[in-house]
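WARN retry 2 of 3 for item q-0093 after timeout on previous attempt; input resubmitted unchanged.
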Amino acid sequence: MSKPELFLTPGYGEKLHELLHYSQALKIGDRVEISGQGGWDNDLAIPEDLTAEIEQAFENVERTLATAGAKWTDVVHVNTYHVGGFPAIVNETITRLYRRYMPDRAPIWTQTGVEALGLPTMHIEIRVTAILA
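OK item q-0093 returned
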């Protein structure tokens, strides 16, 4: 069995590790699991616009996957966590981004509505599993 490797995303991942003592990605063999990624920047600021927040969360997933040698096209499973319900713009934005980041793959996906996320201004958090080819 492969030894687990933990990774920190440069910038915000290092900051979160220092503040909360957790890693952003875990790689075991050909499997990569990442912690939930919000739409934050390196200073943990969240955009006020929901579409911009979702787009930034997708970029953060990409950055975090890269630390473990993976990319969006390796993703097989997505969990999204949402504060504030599911207005049409949520699914429209996520679907558009799935098609951009994974044009040849439709992952399995679970959406969960939650009361709150890790930062008080967050509306979305994305967690994925990737299998390296």
